[in-house]
């Protein structure tokens, strides 16, 4: 005899399908932004079409549905994340630069909406953890201890759009006592720390380190007047280190594009608080040759990443930066990635962390 299904059962299945379709969309967007470039765009666009169709089909019956009592808040959170993911898919399929930038922001908004649901939908929880944690996801979210401040902490900037502020992430399983390293991650041009945070949150949550994602005061980092952003950035680090036990001997500064360029420009400045650097898809700014940074690069640890297909900053500029930094005495690792355009290679995070601090490595890391 077949069991009688209730309307609530049907609604729960709808929610589960929206969650699964959203997860597929998040993975598709991550792959798309990793591979985005002038070459191969049409193949990426075609690959997103069935993902977009599935998510639209899952969302359609939910938009006008009557939500059972008690599920209103969960449904709104899930639908908001799914709608943002759908917006990301649609924008990423465009060749218009502004729509693609909008798609990247929508991708970040989707993660921000779906992250609080990771315990309700374990399939989503996997997206916010590395594979070595999938066997015990609840361990990443233990019952909170009194007075232990974990999760996301936002500090708004002076501007209405939050420019000049930051978001600070403390993994939920931090015990309130352990001294952890800090990764400071700088967004690219026209970016925002609230968005770029998600480039590193999965690793912070899985491996255990503090994560700071600042936002530049202007539309991008102050490359022509570095102290305008570098001084507030150092103050942000002091702010969080006064409230959480940051290991001052383990502070990694990393960034993408303009954020990568600013990583060395500000990071090598006199009295800067950073102990290692990992710029990706940036350039070595000419100011470094006149402000003393190259002299201060001697003995500093730098992990330089660049794509062989970079259309904005050709890879020859990165090879020249490698040679200049090495001649200055820097302890440099250079990773030239054959299939990378002007984009962020998320898979490089694990290698960067293993290089930065061997205690952050895990057994499943690739050892190349």
Task: Characterize this entry briefly.
With 368 residues, this protein is α/β, with parallel strands linked by helices.
Listing every helix as H and every strand as E from the N terminus to the C terminus, the arrangement reads HHHHHEEEHHEHEHEHEHEH
Task: Provide the CATH architecture of the largest domain.
Answer: 3-Layer(aba) Sandwich
Beta-strand level of the residues, as a percent range?
Answer: 5-15%
Overall shape: globular
CATH class of the largest domain: Alpha Beta
CATH topology of the largest domain: Rossmann fold
Radius of gyration (Å): 21 Å
Task: Characterise this structure.
The protein has 368 residues and is an alpha/beta fold. The chain has twelve helices and eight strands. It has an eight-stranded mixed sheet with strand order 1-2-4-3-5-6-7-8, sandwiched between helices. α2 packs antiparallel against α3 (72-92). The longest helix is centred in the N-terminal third of the chain and has 29 residues, at 7-35. The chain is globular, with a radius of gyration of 21 Å. The mean pLDDT is 93.
Supply the key terms.
368 residues, Rossmann fold, 2 domains, 12 helices, 8 strands
Secondary structure elements and pairings:
Elements lengths: L6 H29 L5 H23 L8 H21 L4 H18 L7 H4 L25 E5 L10 E5 L9 E7 L6 H4 L4 H7 L2 E5 L12 H15 L4 E11 L1 H10 L8 E5 L12 H4 L4 E7 L7 H13 L3 E7 L10 H9 L12
Parallel strand pairs: 3-4, 3-5, 5-6, 6-7, 7-8
Antiparallel strand pairs: 1-2, 2-4
Helix pairs in contact: 1-2, 1-3, 2-3, 3-4
